[in-house]
Amino acid sequence: MINEKIISRLNEAGFFFDSELNLWTELNREKFNYNDGDEFENYILDVVSNTSDRSVMSPELVGKIKDWPSLYHLTPKRSNLLRPFANKFAGKRILEIGCGCGAITRFLAESGAQVTAIEGSLRRATIARKRCAGMDNVTVICASSEKVPDLGEFDYVMLIGVLEYANSFLGAGGQKKLLQSCRARLTQEGALFIAIENKLGLKYLAGAKEDHLGVPMLGINNAYSDTGVCTLGREELKDLIKSAGYNHIEEYLPFPDYKLPSLIFTPSGHQSENSKILYPLVSEIFHKEAQPPSDYAFSLEQAALSVWKNNLSADLANSFLMIVSPVERFLTDNQTLAWYYSESRKDNKQKAIQFSKEAEKIRANVFKMDGRFVLSEDYHQGESLWLTLVGIMNKHGWQRQQIVAWVKHWISILIPAEEIQSSWSWDHKLASEYLDATPFNIIKTDEGYKIFDLEINSDKPLNLSSLIFRGLLHSFLRITSVSPTYEITDYNIYQLTKDIIADVFPDADENLCERCLREEVELMRQIATVDTTALYENYQRASFLVRNFLNDYRVALANLNNEITQCNHKRLEQENEFNAKIMEYDHNIALYKDKEREYELKAKEHGIKEGEYAISAAGWESKERELSQCRDENLIIKGKLQDTNAQLMNILGSKGWKILTSYRKLTSRFKR
Fold this sequence. Notes:
Blueprint: H1 4-12, E1 15-18, E2 23-26, H2 38-49, H3 59-62, H4 68-74, H5 86-89, E3 93-97, H6 103-110, E4 114-119, H7 122-131, E5 138-142, E6 154-160, H8 166-170, H9 174-185, E7 186-197, H10 202-205, H11 234-243, E8 248-255, E9 263-265, H12 267-270, H13 275-283, H14 300-309, E10 319-325, E11 336-342, E12 351-358, E13 361-368, E14 373-378, E15 383-384, H15 385-393, H16 400-414, E16 429-430, E17 442-445, E18 448-451, E19 462-463, H17 464-478, H18 493-504, H19 512-527, H20 532-541, H21 549-605, H22 610-652, H23 655-671
Parallel strand pairs: 2-5, 3-4, 3-6, 4-5, 6-7
Antiparallel strand pairs: 1-2, 7-10, 8-9, 8-10, 9-11, 11-12, 12-13, 13-14, 15-17, 16-19, 17-18
Helix pairs in contact: 2-4, 2-7, 13-14, 15-16, 16-18, 17-18, 17-19, 19-20, 21-22, 21-23
C-alpha cells in the first residue's frame, strides 16, 4: 500500500498511475534499451497473465518453463538467493531496483515486506505487476532508478543482477553513482543487497562465456568498455563498495551462481576452518549450472578441492551476494555456515537444510520450505563415493574396468560382508529404503562409510541392478566434464551405463537397462514435475563433456609429426653418411687397384728393390685394413637406417596415426 506522501512526490516528479496496468510510469517515458527479446518476454507475459497460481512455488509456472528465459523468470530457484533472510523482511520497507519480471519481487512480498519495485522496461514492469497481482504490499514503478524521486528511507535495497549494467545506463563511473544513490535511500542501519557475477569465477577460468557479452575470458582479460556492462573481481567490488560510503560488508557465496542458487555459504561458512569440511557440498553442485559452457579447461569438481583447501573460495566463487551497510550489522549468526535448498520436488516435499556449528560438531537441520522444522542430524564429514568416481574419470586414460571396480566397491558397502560374493546376481534383493543409497548419499568418514539421506523408498522389491543402474546414470550425469580416454570411443552416458551393468551383472538379460531406464523416468515423474518423454530421450542422448578432446588429438598429432620429422632428419643424416662411406670405399678400392697395377708393372720389370717391395706390401695391408673398417661402418650405418625406416613405418601404420590424419583432413575441410 502506498501512502499519500509518496503519491504526491511521484506526481510532482512527472509520474502518473496507469490504472489499466496498475503501476506508476512517467508522463514522458523514454525508450528503455533492455529486454530478453520480444518473443521471450511476450511468452512470459502471456504465461503470467493466464496463470491462476502466480506464487513463488507455483507448479503451474514451473510447468510453463521451456527455455532459459522462461526458466530464469519462472523457477522458484530464483528466490533461494534471499531465503536465508526471509524472516528479516516481514514488515520492512524494501526498494528493489531492476525488478525485471518480478520473481524476486514476489518472494519479498510473500515474506511480508512492503515492496517498491522499479523497472525501466514497461513490458517487464507489467509482467512484474501481474506476477504480484492482488498483493497491495507491492508498488511497481516503470522508470530508470535515477529518475525516481525521494520516496523516503528503506530498510533494504536490492540490486540483484543490476550493478553490472550501471555503466551502460549511467555512463562511466555509473556503478559508484548507483551505489551512492542506494546509500542515500537507506536508513542509517539499513542494508544493500548486491548480487553480481565474479569476473574471476572458477567457471569463467574454466572457459565459460562471460554471461552478458557471450565471449569467453572477456572479464578475465578485463576487456570491458567504460560505458558498457562490467563485472568485477572480489577485491575490486569491495573497494568500489567502500568508496561509495559503506563501512560494513558481509560476503555470501551462492552456488552454482546467484541467478539460480541451490547452495549459499555464509561468511562463517567460507571464512573459517569449517569451509574445508563443507567443500564437498560445492563439488556436488556444479552440475546444476543452467547454462554450462560447451567445453572446460579443467574439472570444476576437482578444482574445487584445491580452491577450498587453499582458502580461495571467495576469490574464485562464480558470483557474489554482498550485503553492505553504513554501520556494522549482521543478518546471520556465526553458527550458521550454509544453506542448501531442494525446491524442485512436488507434493510439498521440498526442503531447506541449514548447516550449523554446534559445539564441536556440524549439524544438518532440515526444514520445510515454509520454515517448519523437520529434523536435525549430524553432518558426516568426508567425501562422497561419487567424488571418488569423479577422480577416476578425470585422469587421462581412465578405463572402464576402473569404474567396474568402483561399482563393486559400492556394492560391498551395500551388502553385508557375509553375503559378499565374487559376482552378484542382478536380482539380488535389497531393503526398499536403499533406493536412495546412491553414491552421493554414501560418505567416507574416519569411522568408515556412512549411508545417509535415504528419503525415497521403493514401492516394490528392490533389485540390486535397479539401484546400481540409477546410481550410475545419475553419477555420470552429474559430472561436468571428464578427461579423454582412448579405450572408449562412445561417450554416450546411457551406453557406458549399459556396458558397465553388463560387466557387473553378466547374468542379466539384454533388456534389463531399458526396463531400469523406464522405471527411473517414472520415479522422476512421481518426485518432480517433468516431461517424461523429453526426460527419457535426454537420458538416452546425454553424453559426457570430454575435456580438450580435440586439443588432445592436436597435441598427439603434433607429437607424431615431430617424431616423424626427427626420423626423416635422422634418416637423411644416415643416408648422407652412408653415401659418404660408399664414396670413400669406392675411392679406396680405386687406390688399391692403382697400387696393384703399379706393383704388377714393377714386378714384371724386375726392377723393384727389396725395400720398395716391403713398403708396397705394407701399404697394401694398410689399405686392406681401411677397406675392411669402412665395410664394417657401412654395415652399422645401414642397420641404423633400417631401424629408422622401420620406426617410421610403425608410426605411419599405427591406428593412432590413421585417426589423427582423418582428424587433420576433417579440420582442414572445415577451415576451407
